[in-house]
Amino acid sequence: MRVLLNRNFIGKVCLILFLLILFIFITAFSYANTVQAEIADSVFRLHVIANSDSTEDQELKYKVRDALISYMNSICSKTTSKEEAISIAGSHINDFYNIANNVIKENGFSYPVSIEIGKSDFPTKNYGDVSLPAGIYDALKVNIGEAKGQNWWCVMFPPLCFVDVTSGVVSDESKEQLENSMSEEDYDLITKSDDSSDVHFKFKIVELFENIKMKFASL
Fold it and tell me: Which is nearest to 217 in space by CA: 144, 79, 123, 125?
């Protein structure tokens, strides 16, 4: 009888632990989804895919990127929201195409190029002292040639694109645009994720679950 009671007790404890772990998992998953969606609602990104990983194709990718960023900055210099930035980019989509196509031809290549605005999967990226977690974001997506090379990711609004992101410093104006477009908690999450605090832990939760989602989506 005592053995039976012990087994019942152990079984109940295991069940409670399982339900507790399941609850924590669901809560963390829901939190990660919500936070990533809120952050994604505040930024418009650029996704450029090179024809291949050859040195020439990668250099061409950067030239196309620089030309597109320069043009985007010129037409969106007074933009105050992601929605406005997407609207302006959409109305100038042919200009983006012509700019990319001209850069490709001027550098002696004949690759076709396609440009569209839509959803893209992004890994976690650091832009100076701003970190954006992995996830799905609205982006201007540029495919060069066969688009089988390494990607370039950055943020077109607010303007966080740097030629060298490792030494880039996000301007106060860009930070102010970010801060005004999202909650205080989300803003702290992407600007203070390197702190030894609960902010860093929360960022890692979002990063973990979004990376898991992206891996399952690619299967």
Answer: 123
Residue 100's region, left for phi above 0, alpha for psi from -120 to 50, else beta, is: alpha
Domain boundaries, the chain: 37-217
The type of residue at 219 is L
pLDDT digits (tens, 9 = 90+) for 63-107: 999 899 889 888 887 888 889 999 999 999 999 999 999 999 999
| Residue 67 to residue 45: CA distance in whole angstroms | 15
Q: b/e per residue, 168-182, with b = 16+ CB within 10 A?
A: bebeeebbebbbebb
Side chain identity, residue 14: C
Query: Tokens 């701003």 map to which residue?
Result: 130
Tell me the whole-structure pTM to 2 decimals. Answer: 0.77
CA distance 149 to 151: 6
Alpha carbon of residue 133 to chain centroid: 6
Return d(Cα 14, Cα 91) in angstroms, integer.
58
The DSSP string of 78-117 is: T--SHHHHHHHHHHTHHHHHHHHHHHHHHTT----EEEEE
Which among 77, 79, 75, 112 has a CA at the least distance from the CA of 92? 75
